[in-house]
Write a structure and sequence with these properties.
By secondary structure, the chain is mainly alpha-helical. The protein has helices at about 5-20, 30-50, 65, 75-80, 80-100, 105-120, 120-135, 140-150, 155-165, 170-180, 180-200, 205, 210-225, 235-250, 275-290, 290-295, 300-310, 315-335, 345-370, and strands spanning about 50-55, 60-65. It has 19 helices and two strands. Strand 1 (about 50-55) and strand 2 (about 60-65) form a beta hairpin.
């Protein structure tokens, strides 16, 4: 018999509490808090925009941002991947400085980082490769299999981008040491140049280089944060917000900061200058709030909760779409229960918390088993 997940989660809380009690006074708790919050918001956002429903006896993979365009405004709040890359830059600045002190070398550092990032992703990749192959073998619709697999593996796409940025950390660190904030501004200028040329000359392929320039710019702001170089965060937020408003209001960029089915121009794939402006805005806001939130994080239960989420962060991120698919598949097997409500209707929104709760329960129930791939020694 398998142990109930409830005692297992309780054990994780007790373990997190022990770590909380042993936290060094000099640790920047706000970094851990932002990492946890950004991933939780990403998960909630993915669950919210997914709007599958039954129509004429068939399951339709609806997308809320396309079905109810007004919801695209909400992406200005829930597209928080820039915060994750900011935190990554801060954490990598600390880790790289430690590597330089120990003189262990870039290859050893990169190997350790890549193992921590990629090892938890292998099980979900292998699972969906196997499920996809089995589904095709047994005659399931190829488009359905392809679409479901792509949805399940959405988290691995952003992970791949973050891995690429992580591999550039030794060079990013040297650029920061030599040029300081100028390294940030240079990356921002390159992102603007790429978008300007790509959109003006209709060169969509060129714009994909902004996967490097946009995310490296935000990551480099993490180095700036660690060095204490972002001294007027409200000025950064104001500049970013003004640029974002201008780019959306007078430029070609859409409101949605994430992908929308059928869109002609995306702010996220590839990342656009508008997304970079949103990221700068978020950097300014979160750094302005640091002092207030740090006082809140001094509370034992709040800090314990932060440690708990960080201890399973790769697990919940990589598997949250799989958990959602499992719940929807269960509903389909039960005759489409709960899937007959038109997305965007008042009834649909009323039942949304129930669906989100079901997704969360499915995900958390699997955490005690799946977490071993993230933390084998835990």
């Amino acid at each position: 018999m398998h142990a109930s997940p409830i005692p297992a989660v309780g054990s994780l809380w007790r373990q997190a509490r022990r770590l909380a009690d042993a936290t060094p006074a000099e640790r920047n708790r706000y970094v851990d808090f932002l990492r946890a919050v950004s991933i939780v918001v990403v998960i909630a956002g993915h669950w919210l925009v997914a709007a599958p429903y039954f129509e004429r006896g068939a399951l339709v993979p609806g997308h809320m941002l396309a079905l109810a365009p007004w919801t695209q405004w909400l992406t200005l709040a829930v597209q928080v991947m820039p915060v994750f890359f900011l935190v990554g830059g801060y954490a990598n600045a600390i880790a790289w400085r430690s590597t330089e002190r120990k003189r262990t070398g870039a290859s050893v550092w990169l190997a350790g980082r890549l193992q921590r990032l990629l090892a938890p992703a292998l099980p979900v990749l292998f699972l969906w490769i196997g499920l996809g192959a089995a589904a095709l073998f047994f005659g399931f619709d190829a488009d359905l299999v392809r679409g479901t697999t792509q949805v399940a593996l959405v988290p691995t796409w952003f992970l791949a981008v973050y891995v690429a940025v992580t591999m550039a950390v030794p060079y990013a660190a040297r650029a920061w040491e030599r040029f300081g904030l100028r390294s940030v501004f240079a990356l921002m200028a390159l992102a603007a140049l790429v978008d300007g040329i790509g959109l003006t000359l209709s060169l969509p392929g060129l714009r994909y280089t902004n996967y490097a320039f946009v995310w490296l710019a935000i990551h480099q702001l993490g180095f700036a944060w660690h060095a204490g170089a972002v001294r007027r965060p409200l000025l950064w937020a104001g500049f970013g917000g003004a640029a974002l408003a201008a780019l959306i209001g007078f430029g070609p960029y859409p409101i949605a900061m994430v992908g929308v089915p059928g869109e002609t121009l995306s702010n996220s794939s590839p990342p656009s200058l508008a997304l970079l402006a949103l990221g700068v805005t978020q950097v300014g806001i979160v750094l302005r709030l640091q002092g207030f939130v740090e006082r809140w994080l001094a509370r034992p239960r709040v800090w314990t909760g932060t440690i708990l989420v960080n201890g399973m962060i790769m697990t919940v991120y990589l598997w949250h779409m799989t958990a959602m698919i499992a719940v929807v598949a269960l509903a389909v097997s039960l005759g489409g229960i709960g899937l007959g409500v038109p997305p965007g209707s008042g009834t649909w929104w009323m039942w949304r918390p129930v669906w989100l709760g079901a997704f969360a329960v499915a995900l958390l129930a699997a955490v005690p088993v799946l977490r071993r791939f993230e933390r084998p020694s835990a």
